Predict the 3D structure of the following.
Amino acid sequence: MESTENILSRIEFLRKKMTDVALQKGFTDNESVYISQELDRLLNLYEKVKQEK
């Protein structure tokens, strides 16, 4: 299982990347949507890992 610190680091990276991509290409661009979905997945994983501790 991944550590919460590792997951949080990836979440912060994706938040910044998603913002940058969305501002350049638009919020509905495929890349923006993909990053948003990956961010959602990581946020769900983070909550799951927190509950298991």
